[in-house]
Structure formats: C-alpha cells, structure tokens
Amino acid sequence: MTGKEEWLRLKEYKEFEKALAAGLQMPDGSMMQTDQIQAAEATVHYAIFSGTTLLEHGASPYNHDQFPYILYGAYKDDDQNRWFGAITMQKDPQIGLNTIRRQLTHLLQTAPRGILMHESGAIMNIEDYEERGADPTYHMEILPGKLDKVKFSQQPQISPIYQHLDSMNNQAMKDAAGVQDEMMGVQQSSREPGVTVQARYETGMAVLYIIFQNYRKSRKQAHMQLLSMIQQYVTDETVVRIEGQTGIELVQINSQMNPQIEGWNDISSAKFDLDYEEASIGAMTRQGVARVLGEYAQTNPGAIPPKLLLEYSNVPYSTKMEIQQASQQAQESAAIAQQQEAVLAEREILIKEYDAETKRLAVTQKTEETNQPRKEE
User: Fold this and answer.
1) With CB atoms 3.0 to 4.6 Å apart as the test, which of 153, 186, 224, 363 could cross-link to 181 if both were Cys?
2) 314 — alpha (psi -120 to 50), left (phi > 0) or beta?
3) Contacts of 282 by beta carbon, 8 Å cutoff, 6+ apart
4) d(Cα 358, Cα 369) in Å, to the nearest integer?
5) Whole-model pTM?
6) What is the DSSP letter of 192?
C-alpha cells in the first residue's frame, strides 16, 4: 500500500486483514477493499549483542525456518503455562518421607531403655550392673528366692503410624513417576502369575505415556532440524554407515549431483519423512511377544518366520547378526544342494530316457531283421 515494509504482530496483522476486507481508506481518499491477502508467515531472526550494544542481527541462516532450540519437557502445567520435570511430582512425598524417617531416627536415639526394678538386696552385684550393664557378656546374679523380685519396666513402643506413612510415601512416589517395582525388576511374590505382572507393567507404561509422548515430539522436531542442517551443510562426497534391521550398510551420498545421470544421490534436493513408533517395547513386553509367537509357531509350523522370532528375543544385537548370517549361509547351502539335486535328477531322467530309447531302437532293429525275407540257397 505504501511501498514500504512494515512489521506487524500476528494480532495486528489479523486486525489489518479484517479492516482491508471491510474497506480501508487510502491517504488519497480512495477505498481499497480485497480479501485476497497473502497469508502471514513466521520468520526467525537472530541478534548478537553485548549489554546494550547490538553487534549483529539478521534472518536465520538455517533453511528449516524454526527456532533452533528444542525444549525437552516432561509435563506441562497449562494453568501456569510452564513445563516441569518428572521429579517435581515426587518432591512432596520425598519431603514427607525424609521428615518421617528423621523423626523415627530421633525417637530411636532418645527412647529410654527399660528401667530395672528390684527389691533392696535382691541383686548381689548391683554395682557391677551399674558399670557393666551395657556389656553384652554381662550376667546378673540374684539371691536365692528373689527372682520374682527383679524385673524391667516395659520399653516405650514407637507408634506403627511411622511404618504406615513410610510405605505410603514410597508408594506415592512410584505412582507419581509411573515406575512400579515390576518395571525395575523387583519381585514382590514368587507365586504371582506372569500375566498379572505383565498387566501391572503395562499399566505403569500407560502412566508414562504423556512423558514419552512429549519426548517423542521433541526428538522428532530435533531430528527434523538435524536432517535439514545435514542437507544444508553436508555438500561434499561422503560415505555414511546406516544400521537397521537388515544390518549395517554403507551409503554413498553427494557423489553424483546431476539428476539426469544414473546414480544421482544429491541429498540437498531430497525430501525425508521422519516418524517414531509410539509403542513402548521393554524387556518384559518383548518376552511376552516372543512367547506368543513361539506358541503360535508350535501349533502352526512355518507360519512365523524365524527372523521375526529372533527380532523379539532378548539377545544382543551382535548375536542376532551372527544367527542371521548363519541362517542365511544355511539357506544358501540348502539352495545349492537343492539345485545340485535337481541337476542330478535331470541327468538321471536323461539317462533313463537314453536307455529307453536305446532299448526301443534295439527292439525295432530286431523286429526288422525278423521280418526281412530270407534268401533260399
């Protein structure tokens, strides 16, 4: 309108859109009215300053047009619009637990011992008891017939409420974190069925869904920026190593920059899709899946590929690779042996056909000789 660039906030830009759609009076008195307005675009700028001195500023040098810092937050408080970690919800139970145990330690240290009560003269070595009563090897001598005249007063008992509060605060921290004993491998009962343990494990993972979901979003955003920066700054010919389910592969990039020639691998002009699995697979979950697959494979032989069973088995990655290589070699050897057997079988068929043809020719020749008229002498 004025030929000059003006920066507006998003709220001001929306008000400008409404005013322009309704009709805006120009400085020369004419009216401008249109609803075809270019959509607002968010841009990122940077500034380097020292104190109140601006050293440098400009548009972001990155191609991804995003703020180049990623927030990894566990939970968000929508009321206060702030993020907090997994430890925040465990602070109050931990403070209560520390207070209870501190009070319990104080009571144990200051609780009086049982008081010795006896009739005068019932104990023969009372002075020795006063000096060595705390010695674990000390023994007390009592006059004959005076055993019922000596007794100790009952020591004050500590209230069982401390034990109850201790266990309650411990469980409160586990509930807040979503990490129960089953997830830490702590066995509570030897007779508890595995299905029950698995159910509690999955319940704990349901509590942890929010924190893992937020972590997934942060990782996805961070790796999208990383891929964008790789495309922007990795321009030289490079060989990268990729590890996956098929093993380790070496991939060459930026060696052929012409898209018209075969082998074009310029990553700067490519587009990538990035996603993360939301399913939580732990050791116990993998064991459960492997058990189900094993049972199904026993009842339905050949229905489950051995590679799938190996994928869910809890063995090191290097061991899986060795097993896969051995299995592949065994399959190749079996294929070679099968091919050799097929060649031998084909040769045997040819030999049998040759023998049959030889016999047929012999029979035909003999028949012809028999049917030929004989010359009389």
Assistant:
1) 186
2) beta
3) 183, 201, 205
4) 17
5) 0.53
6) -
